[in-house]
Design a protein that fits this description.
The chain is mainly α and 472 residues long. It is built from 18 helices and no strands. It has one domain. The radius of gyration is 22 Å and the shape is globular. It is a multi-pass membrane protein.
């Protein structure tokens, strides 16, 4: 671990971003292959089935988001303790976070499963979409616990700068998903398949396998984090404090998920074809965000470790460079998407001209502002990694509740734009939020937070707990 740590804390920032960012981007590309594979095969069933998946995804994402703040707290602390050279605390934080995440995911998955039909009724889903959407949602909620555990494994490994092992695991599970998807959706021989639900089942099987491998890697302890079964004894004091650190992160991600649900209400009011256009456009947007997310995750690890090592100036340099890369990179991708919009949509739904036209229109309206997403993601990653979860939460609330939904509603319902108004709300939000977040970052107050030294609530409690454990 010595060479990577030296690079992360003292070496070339460009090299450090690339060393971390490239494997993370590859992981994200492979993970998006889950959704791409699902979207590709479900698209062969028809627009109604695509709409069923499109409606279900934001609801399951909301439940995952509620519990993700806890995972975020663990990833932030593990990165800062790694930067501070405190390996025992890295192990302690990892074990307690895995325990918290598993308990939380189980509870949220059960609640989500039971409330699924009520969610769909609230969303006003059409009768021909309801049945498939409910099946997809039920299976997705069963799998929430495995999604959580593996996401936590990845976040902790990323926090300490270890990205190769998650890349190998994701590669294997995506290949398995690629085989299972058409088999479980369409069947084979005498087996008739499960339709839309088959896509969710394939993901459930592969994610549970990935989660099991992740836990096994931690218990073996050969890749930077060593967990023992005794490490999972609940440390209630740490959990309480981590909850308060992670709560703004849960609110942040929940606001984003809730924003998606509200947008689904709005989109649904224009009918199934608009939902399908929105679903395909959203899938393409998720693909585009892969490199930006990879870059922002690299920022998160580097900023966390440098803040833990007491070097906020280097953390700021990292964020500035990454934001510039994000701005330029996603703007170039946006220009390409503008030129080939119809072909991108036709990949998902090849036989529906109205959906191809609607999806292409969605992409063309928003794609030239994608550079703003790159800036926003990198700055928010720096806020989170430095322990300024409230900043990230405010950006999310501002983005979803103050800018995007009001703009979408006014433009689509009170102008002649109709559904196009929803598309324009994405472009407006991308530009405004990028400007606001960067100005906030440039003010520099976020650099004053350092959990491993100054956070009286969490770092101290964790330290005292470890000392007490050592004395027993």
């Amino acid at each position: 671990m010595a060479d990577p740590q030296h690079l992360f804390l003292h070496g070339s920032i460009s090299k450090a971003l690339l060393k971390l960012g490239i494997p993370i981007i590859l992981i994200n590309i492979l993970q998006s292959a889950y959704q791409l594979t699902d979207a590709f095969w479900v698209g062969r069933l028809g627009a109604e089935q695509v709409a069923a998946v499109s409606v279900s995804m934001p609801v399951t994402f909301l439940v995952i988001a509620i519990g993700s703040g806890l995972a975020m707290a663990g990833a932030i602390l593990s990165a800062q303790y790694m930067g501070a050279g405190q390996q025992d605390k890295v192990n302690h934080v990892a074990a307690q976070t895995m325990l918290m995440v598993t308990i939380t995911a189980t509870i949220l998955g059960l609640i989500g499963y039971m409330l699924s039909p009520y969610f769909l009724t609230l969303l006003g889903v059409e009768d021909q979409v309801f049945g498939d959407a409910l099946k997809f949602m039920h299976v997705s909620f069963i799998g929430v616990v495995f999604v959580f555990i593996y996401a936590m494994f990845q976040a902790l490994m990323r926090g300490i700068g270890q990205t190769k092992v998650p890349l190998y695991i994701v590669s294997g599970t995506v290949l398995l998903n690629f085989v299972l998807d058409p088999l479980l959706i369409f069947g084979f021989g005498d087996f008739s398949g499960f339709g839309v639900m088959g896509a969710a089942l394939a993901t459930l099987i592969t994610q549970s396998l990935a989660a099991a491998i992740g836990v096994w890697v931690f218990l073996r302890g050969r890749h930077g984090i060593q967990l023992k079964l005794s490490s999972f004894k609940p440390d209630w004091q740490y959990m309480k404090q981590a909850f308060f650190l992670g709560a703004p992160g849960s609110v942040e991600l929940s606001a984003r998920a809730f924003g998606l649900i509200i947008m689904s209400f709005l989109v649904a009011s224009f009918g199934t074809h608009t939902i399908a256009s929105y679903g395909v456009g959203s899938n393409i947007l998720q693909m585009v965000m892969i490199p930006a997310m990879g870059l922002s995750m690299a920022v998160s690890t580097l900023v966390g470790q440098n803040m833990g090592a007491g070097n906020p100036q280097r953390a700021a340099q990292i964020t500035r460079l990454a934001s510039l890369w994000g701005l330029l990179g996603l703007t170039i991708v946006g220009v390409v998407a503008y030129l080939f919009a119809e072909y991108l949509v036709a990949f998902f739904i090849p036989d529906d001209e109205s959906v191809i036209a609607g999806g292409a229109e969605f992409i063309r309206v928003m794609c030239l502002t994608w550079g703003g997403i790159g800036v926003q993601l990198c700055v928010v990653a720096a806020f989170r990694a430095s322990g300024n979860m409230l900043n990230a939460m405010v950006v999310s609330l501002l983005s979803q509740c103050v800018i995007q939904f009001p703009a979408a509603y006014i433009l689509s319902k009170h102008t002649s734009l109709g559904p196009q108004g929803i598309w324009y709300s994405f472009a407006i939000t991308n530009v405004l939020v990028a400007i606001i977040t960067y100005l906030w970052f440039a003010a520099g107050r976020w650099q004053r937070t350092q959990l491993t030294k100054e956070d009286k609530d969490i770092a101290k409690v964790t330290q005292e707990t470890l000392i007490e454990e050592g004395n027993h």
